[in-house]
Amino acid sequence: MLGFSGSPAEDGPMKSRPLEFPAARRDPESGYTLHGRWFDDPYAWLERLDAPETQSWLAAQEAVTRAVLHAVPGRGALRKEATRSACYARFSPPIPAGPPGREFFWQADATDEKLKFMLQRGKGAPLETVLDPNTWASSEALVFAVPSPDGARVAFGKAIGGTHAAVIQVLDVETGRMLPDRPRGTGHASLAWRPDASGFFYAACPEPGEVPPGDEAHWNAIYEHRLGAGEPARRIFGDDQEKAYWCSVKISECRRFAVLYKWDYVHANAVYLLRLADDRLVPVARAMRSLNQVQVIGGSLLIQTDLDAPRGRLCVAPLTAPEEWRTLIPEGSDTLQTVTGIGGRLYAVYSHAASHRVRIHAEDGTYLRDLTLPALGSVNRNEGEGTVSGIRGAWSCDEVWVSFMSYVQPPSVYRYDYASDRLSPYHVPGAGLDAAEYVTDQVWYESLDGTRVSMFLVHKRDMPRDGRQAVRLSGYGGFNIALEPRYAPLNVAWLKLGGVLAFPNVRGGGEYGRAWHEAACKTRRQNAFDDYIAAARWLVAAGYTTPSRLVSRGNSNGGLLVAVTAMQSPEAFGAVYCRAPLLDMLCFPKFSHLSSATVEFGSPEDPVEGAYLAGYSPYHNVRTDRRYPAMAFVPALNDQIAPPYDPLKMAARLQAEGTQGGPYFLLPLRDSGHGGGTTLTALIEQDVDELSFYCWALGFVPPAP
Question: Which part of the chain is the Peptidase S9A N-terminal domain (predicted)?
Answer without folding.
Answer: 22-427
